[in-house]
Amino acid sequence: MSELNGNSVLRLAPGCRFTAQENQENMLLIPEGALRLKGPARAIFELCNGERPLDEVIDELRRRYPPEQAPRIESETLAFVAQMRDRGILEVV
């Protein structure tokens, strides 16, 4: 698999979708089951919508969270996105 970089544009892979029912726990339905979304995971998946490069996703997360978390945001987002891509949940457009 190719390396992800700031210009990589990602989206949910076919067959993956958020739970649609109100008052239900944040879940991402995937072909093998479901993932419970905690912390910024849902925001990352929503921002990886096939329209913006990874650099813009990270910039938006930096705006949403306290400045003291900025150093961790990039490294943890890149690791999370790479893991989700490797599992076939996110795909590079």
Notes on the protein architecture:
This protein is an alpha+beta fold and 93 residues long. The protein has a single domain, classed as Outer Surface Protein A, domain 3, CATH 3.90.930. It contains three helices and five strands; from the N terminus they run ββββαααβ. α2 crosses α3 (70-86). It is globular, with a radius of gyration of 13 Å. It starts with 9 loop residues before the first strand and ends with a strand. The mean pLDDT is 91.
Count of helical regions: 3
Looking at the overall shape, the CATH architecture is: Alpha-Beta Complex
Total tally of structural domains:
1
Q: What does the average pLDDT come to?
A: 91
CATH class, please? Answer: Alpha Beta
What's the gist of this structure?
With about 90 residues, this protein is an alpha+beta fold.
Helices and strands in order:
Blueprint: E1 10-12, E2 17-18, E3 27-30, E4 33-36, H1 41-47, H2 54-64, H3 70-86, E5 90-92
Antiparallel strand pairs: 1-5, 2-3, 3-4
Helix pairs in contact: 2-3
Quickly list its features.
single chain; 93 residues; alpha+beta; Outer Surface Protein A, domain 3; three-stranded antiparallel beta sheet; two-stranded antiparallel sheet; 3 helices; 5 strands; globular
